[in-house]
Design goal:
- This protein is an alpha/beta fold and 342 residues long.
- 42% of the residues lie in helices and 15% in strands.
- It has twelve helices and twelve strands.
- The strands form three sheets. A six-stranded parallel beta sheet has the order 2-1-3-4-5-11, with helices on both faces. A four-stranded parallel beta sheet has the order 7-6-8-9, sandwiched between helices. Strands 10-12 form a two-stranded antiparallel sheet.
- α11 links the parallel β8 and β9.
- α8 packs parallel to α9.
Length: 342
């Protein structure tokens, strides 16, 4: 585990300067403070004394609010948050909203009256969500938004570039020769879902392919909506030869239903997902997908929160992580498909 001397060496300053910064016991220039903060973040070093000295009546508890504890995407985020928090002796309170706006509102109301030092929130909805906005405006304690970020400039946030990731997935399918590419989108009113729809449409447009709205359906990020959406898509007058699902669970649902219908993946239907959960590499065929750095999302969100607890007036950070397309077995070139079969 890093210590104060490691931070000093990485920042190129003395240990005494780092100590002055941590304990607010003397002058440290703005550029030097930035170097020390960056070194601490790079080394995962958030000293207990920093949080305790700059905050009174601390509980040493932080809360994390997530939409669905059963979705394999979120436990990895939780692990990243907990690893960073526990290193600084913070306990983590976990709340699951089940994607319910009402349940989320109740949780936020409780947290507003609870003695916690900070909250990390992955909202169930983000488009025009007055409850989240009101909660943020109250600012009773430090808050970090993760993944489903709204335009609220006073709050630290971190997310994946969902537009770019969806563009990469759809571009890959277009590059394989597909022209009838369906998109099983996530829920409406969620920014990440909307950004993925936009990225999908942009890739098609760049290949000169008009967006057919009959090929765009909305799910709820569960395997069941991927499973349930395939029948209607394949019964269209001109069925798709490829499906881009907005997360891996829905993509796995598509593969499951395709197998039952006798549709071979990837020979008859190419499938691409988003997230790169653990199951993506072990499902058969293995899933081509867009990788999010889920553990890093959690880790960096916790670092942002502990930094905000320690330095309430530090500059706001808005971080966007770059996704990465992972090519596996579930997407093949269009000439392998039996066009018009369905």
């Amino acid at each position: 585990m890093a210590n104060i001397h490691d931070v000093a060496a990485k920042a190129g300053v003395s240990a005494a300067t780092v100590s002055r910064f941590i304990n607010s016991s003397g002058y440290v220039g703005a550029k030097t403070r930035t170097k020390i903060r960056e070194a601490m973040e790079a080394l995962d070093y958030v000293p207990n004394s920093m949080a305790r000295s700059l905050r009174t009546n601390e509980s040493m508890i932080v809360a994390l609010v997530i939409p669905d504890v059963t979705n394999p995407f979120f436990p990895t985020v939780v692990r990243g948050v907990d690893d960073v928090a526990s290193k600084s002796d913070y306990r983590l309170m976990l709340f699951n909203t089940d994607g319910s706006k009402r349940r989320e509102e109740n949780i936020l109301s409780v947290l507003a009256q609870t003695r916690v030092d900070g909250v990390i929130v992955i909202p169930s909805e983000t488009v025009g969500d007055a409850q989240i906005t009101d909660f943020l405006e109250q600012q009773r304690f430090p808050i970090v938004l993760v993944d489903r970020v709204i335009d609220f400039p006073q709050v630290d946030c971190i997310m994946t570039d969902h537009y770019l990731g969806a563009y990469q997935a759809a571009q890959h399918l277009c590059g394989l020769g597909h022209r009838r590419i369906a998109h099983i989108a996530g829920p409406r009113r969620v920014v990440s879902s909307e950004e993925r729809v936009k990225g999908y449409a942009a890739a098609l447009n760049d290949f000169g392919i008009p967006v057919d709205q009959s090929l765009v359906v909305h799910g709820d990020f569960t395997r069941y909506t991927g499973y349930g959406s395939l029948d209607s898509l394949m019964n269209l007058p001109e069925a798709p030869t490829a499906v881009f699902a907005a997360n891996d669970l829905m993509a796995i649902g598509v593969i499951e239903r395709a197998r039952e219908l006798g549709i071979k993946v990837p020979e008859d239907l190419a499938v691409c997902g988003f997230d790169d959960i653990e199951y993506a590499s072990i499902v058969s065929p293995s899933l081509t997908t867009v990788s999010q750095e889920t553990y890093r999302l959690g880790k960096l969100s916790a670092q942002l929160l502990l930094r905000r607890i320690a330095e309430p007036d530090c500059e706001v950070r808005r971080i966007k992580l770059k996704p990465n397309l992972i090519v596996r077995e579930s997407a093949a070139r269009v000439y392998q498909h039996t066009l018009g079969r369905w």
